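Researcher: Before we compare anything, I want clean individual predictions. No alignment, no superposition, just each chain on its own. First chain goes here; please echo the sequence and then give the structure tokens.
Model: Echoing the first chain and its structure:
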Amino acid sequence: MEKLLWKEKLSYGIGAYGKDFIYNMIAAFLMIFYTDVVGVSLIFVSTLFLVVRIVDAITNPFMGWLVDNTKTKWGKFRPWILIGTIINSFVLILLYLNPATFLQGILINVWCIVTYLLWSLTYTLMDVPFWAMIPAFSNDAKVRNEISMLSRLFATFGGQMMSTIGLLVIACLGVNMGASESDGYLRFAVIVAIVFNICEIICVRNVSEHVVIKNKRDIKLSEVLNFLKENDQLLIIIFMTILQQIAVFLWTGMNIYFFKYVVCHEEWFSIFGIVNFIVGSIGLIAFPSLANKFSRKVVYILSAILLVLGLLGMFFVGDDHKASVVLFFSVASLFCLGNALAGVSTTVMLADTVDYGEYKSGIRSEAVVFSVQTFTVKFGSAIAGFIGAMVLSLVGYVPNAVQTPETVLGLRVMMFIMSALLIMVILCLYLKFYKLNGSFYFNILKELSKRREKISLD
């Protein structure tokens, strides 16, 4: 088993922390910032999120191609992580600069479109090369399990810290200081940008590539689409993870509405962040041991079962403002555990498709493969946001008002029942189509090792 220095492991984890810290400020708060602070319509916001994700579908593979063809003394990943971080931080501040305070009419919408599109594109600059580094750390499956677990653990910490303290800090920096809620969002964005830069600088400074497989030639841009289409295991993971992101974000991306308007305990939003972090961390830490003792396949099936049980449990016990906090978060912990196991499982599976793509085509392309992870996360969350906005609109959601029973039921069905059904569909797809497990995958690694040894001798 190849060893990595703990300095590298921790530095990569810190990078994951900062990356998800900033991402979850968008995932958790941007929709409600747009609807309840800026004052734009739900239909506009959901359409904006969806259109930008379509743009991502085009730009993410291009970014992967650009990274894979990058050659510097720092390697091909770290320069882009640093460049993307600096630019994305600046755009984040513009994103939370409330345009309603200095613009009017259609210009407010234009500002939202331009800044959100720029944020998404610049986040791609650093996110694609960041995750694409995982196969470059080691060829050993156990090492990949470990580094994937650790990065997901730190990412979960960053994301859940945002969910836990976000609203509190925004209030402290805004209305509690005699300023506006809008000011609170902007000031918090500045702090988040600073933290993001510190984390990624630590990461870039201390990590390096250990597995450097040089292709015989550069990958042509025209080959990228064919490369993706030929990797059938990558295609099934793309489809699975898009559905998984939709299912997860129908709950996590909309839960601030649930806590505020359904159970009428907005403070539960922060409690959920704490529970999600603690339980999710347990799942992430346990993943390498579970995968080694049983198999990745068993762990992934378990994750799906836990997600479904958690979602259905929350539907039945979180039906009104009289819901028990202990009972609700007991069943919510099943969802949190399943989500953690599913997240690290898909990251490891994606790393394996890099080997599979090299096995089939003779070309190794970490960044092109991992560009789809950035795309699936953002596209899935955007679809979930679009569905959520449509459902909220159809069931009569009114911002900052008591919701009708029909609105409450619509929210609950969308967040829990629809999500649970999607998870069951994903599990069926996995069992039928995914095959990079056991002896099949082991034989691929043996064949690749023989090929590389032959090339080194030539």
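Researcher: Okay. Second chain, same rules.
Model: Second chain and its structure:
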Amino acid sequence: MNGYGTARRPATAVRRLMAVLTASAALVAGCTTGTSEETPPTPRGLKQYYDQKPSWRGCGNGLECATVKVPLDYGRPQGEQIGLAIVRLPARDRSERIGSLVTNPGGPGGSGVEFIRQAGGLFGRDVRDRFDVVGFDPRGVGESDPVSCLDGPQLDRFFGTDSSPDNSHELAALRTESQALADGCKTRSGPILPHVGTVDAARDMDVIRAALGDAKLNYMGFSYGTYLGAVYAEQFPRNIRTFVLDGAVDPRLSSTETLIEQAKGFETALRAFAADCAAAPNCPLGSDPGQALNKIAELQRRTDSAPLKSVRGDSRPINETWVTTGIAAALYNKGFWPTLRQALAQAIQKDQGDLLLALADQMLQRRPDGTYSNQMEANMAVNCVDKPNPPDAAAYQKEVDKAEKVAPHFGSYVAWGGLPCVYWPVQTKKAPHAISAKGSAPILVIGTTRDPATPYRWAQSLASQLDSGTLLTLDGDGHTAYLGGPPCITKATDHYLLTGTPPKKGTVCR
């Protein structure tokens, strides 16, 4: 695992997973109301991009799709171009339309196009009435010149490699697979790798804003999408109308600090799950939360040398790494906790790992035919170029040791996930830093107290860094808060998007 994650999935994803295991609207531009802001000046040399008008076409279920052109290298805007796939769900009340609400589901590497296809209808009623909800695949992702590194069997081997090495042989194997991923990305996607970072993606968002015809940007970013939003706010603070950053990332942290803090977040979520399970009848982990955590640790240790069986005939050894990935996947959304209890019961009582493996496959976006989406490859490509990385595996080992001390169930697994960045063909020397976005309109930051992937303290930190930041808290579980969250979060967020007025500082929802 490397990086942050994506917005919590709709509850239907749980039912879809269990089912797998047991067996054109008119194209109108519309008029924009309530947006009398003066159009920002066009950055020098980019007029052809800012002046483009997307050719929208119907693409099913009331959606409209188009492509927006951007320069591969903003330092050479007259050079090679790439296309960004975008999709919009038009506002239902065209007469009261405010503008576009651009979104990013996280990752990095999450497809914004697929996000709107699956979850566009889940935005608040008033938001759906008055905004075109827009998604896009960032550069290097999905349909936007995607990064490609390895084929399906090679990715199986990479994701299944022991990520908590106990000896020199296992560590050598982990280094070899990490190097292979970096080399594969260089071979298959070398020219785009220097240009897939968040700074360039944020510049793309401003081109998209202009192409959509909006003088100011309305944006909702989840997980990594909060970092993308913060970087945009740093570059274009006066181009913001409303910004929602849900499941916030702390931009001040180094690459390894981020992974260590994320491992601690998963530990917090696992403790919450263990307590919930122990309080329920027939918990496969026992009736004591401490005992439950010990049983999970014992399962991890046992599968390090004796993988679980697959009754479905999957050829992959369901080892400690796949088991831990499956557990982590279920912690992203409390709606998956019953599934996780069932998966752990199968593993502990029957020595079967199919359900844990299915959870892992869903998070990694592995398809039934053994191929993968490019989400995880893009995730690595973005994370590796966004921040400096340790110079070698020996230096990286010291960071892993720190993670193991503070997160015994997840420290090694999460921290070693960034090892390919040590071998990455493109490196940056730009150090992480606080982002203030001085001069921006109010920005709403949302944090969940027991978020596994983006710990609550990150939301507290980002809200305090931003000159105009306001923190909205969900006292609860799961990754991100708005989609599928309580009405308190939805109402406060929607009111802000409609009016520009954030909720009162210190607001806590439950």
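Researcher: What stands out in the second chain?
Model: Confidence is low (pLDDT under 50) at residues 9-36. Additionally, The radius of gyration is 22 Å.
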